[in-house]
Amino acid sequence: MLDLSVHQVRETAHRLDGSLAGVLERCHPFLVHALGADQARKLTDPAPADAREFLARLEPYSDALPLPSAQLIEAARVARDIDGLRVLAEVDFADLNRTLAGLAPRYRPISHAEAHDEAVRRHVDLGRGTLIDRLRWARRAEFDARRPIADWATTRSLKWITAPEEWALTVDSADDGLLRAVVEQALTARLGASAPGKGEGLAAMDRLRSHNHAVITKKTPDLVALVKAAKRPLPAVLAKAAAAEEITDLLDEAGALDFRELSADDVVGWLAALGQWPAGMAASAEPQAHGLTPAELDRVRNAAEQARIERAKRKRIITIGERDFDIESGDFTELASELRRALESGPPLGGSTRRRWAALKPIPPRRAASSSGGRPGVRVDGERRLSSAQRSAIGFVGEWYAYQWLREQDRATDETSWVSGNRTHVFPGPAGDDSLGYDFKVGSGRSPRLYEVKATQGPGGQIELGETEVRAAQKYSGSDRWRILVVTSVLDAERRQVRMLPNPFSERGRGLYREEGGALRFAYRL
What we know:
Elements: H1 6-16, H2 20-35, H3 37-44, H4 51-58, H5 69-78, H6 82-89, H7 93-101, H8 113-126, H9 128-144, H10 152-157, H11 167-170, H12 176-191, H13 205-229, H14 236-239, H15 243-253, H16 264-273, H17 294-314, E1 317-320, E2 323-326, H18 333-345, H19 388-409, E3 440-442, E4 449-455, E5 462-464, H20 467-475, E6 482-488, E7 497-501, E8 514-515, E9 521-523
Parallel strand pairs: 4-6
Antiparallel strand pairs: 1-2, 3-4, 5-9, 6-7, 8-9
Helix pairs in contact: 2-3, 2-5, 2-7, 5-6, 8-12, 13-15, 13-17
């Protein structure tokens, strides 16, 4: 309770003279709660002229109020809101909420839903290991029978354990007893029966899942070789390029990774249970079970390894003319020499008119996606199949041709114009900066021309801008300073072209681009 002297009460009245409206607003529900709506209205309507008058009106009812009159006024002054005043006045949370509900729409009940949700989450987090073990004991029989537990990922998350909705307006603060009760109720509702309180020793989830993931990763190549050596068609999951990851995801969805340590035979057994093992083939990882010798398996493994090596080699090669270049090291010295030779012996890059804009056709907005989903019509020219090394090399080739084009088209172009990181493959001096939002800066005046280069192996039709490029394009959208140089068929000397496109955000570019899957990808039509 608030112990106030006469002096404090007078000081309170003095301070309240300028903030009485807020005090009345906070006090009114408590007056209704203690004295009824009619009496509360008489005490506050008309509004008292000052705090002294309000105190005088409340004095006759002081004993019926949750706090003596002066203390109630002081508490209303210091409280931040009605709930704060409720705490100071020690009024029951649910009781006051019933009063507030009857004062709608001027007042609304106080909700503690957010605090209850946080309390439940903290309680669950503290007991997470034990709760998951209880769930594992409850679902272990399904695992042992190799029956997929379809909802296991959701069950394991424990996100379904939440505070009851009715708590929001009736429970002030959830204590441990209430929290334990709500957890037990949620477990029972989820399982359809009480959750076991004890059971056999279980391995820690993180160690168990890590072990099982490692087993799958190690044994998957052997399982692929086993099926091939048995001359059976590979099931879909084993035929994937990332088969180990696919199997891990498949077994994880079925709840197969969280109960016991898996052996290679267990993995095969689960694949068979999930329809991802050849029909009629024994559910075993042992070659002898399929009448196979180690030599037969080795032949299949060697062929697979050779295919893998060849795929990896293709990912670090680009071809210019009839020459292959291994670009894994990132050293493009020989590549640049070949580009120079090819340019000197091939068709010219530029046209007869300097810096002529490409003649883009207006492109209509995309129609709504078809019922099959996806983004129909989006063309990526095969670029997504490239390795990062190949993308880097193609980006360099595009910028190299863009530099040659600019040298032909704009006399102000020299080696200092090339400002991206790729300049270091050709010129000494500054290393370049890939965060500028453009690759070339031509001209030394107050308004240099800025060029962002986009290279593609295909005929073009789509560009993708990075975040720094979008920021630069938007910054210079009020002029034609920021442009795009698209180098199409970049590795084909006979078809290669360099075209200058306007800024998608500029007046010149309006209506000539269409956003594809977000503001960073644009389609255009030549």
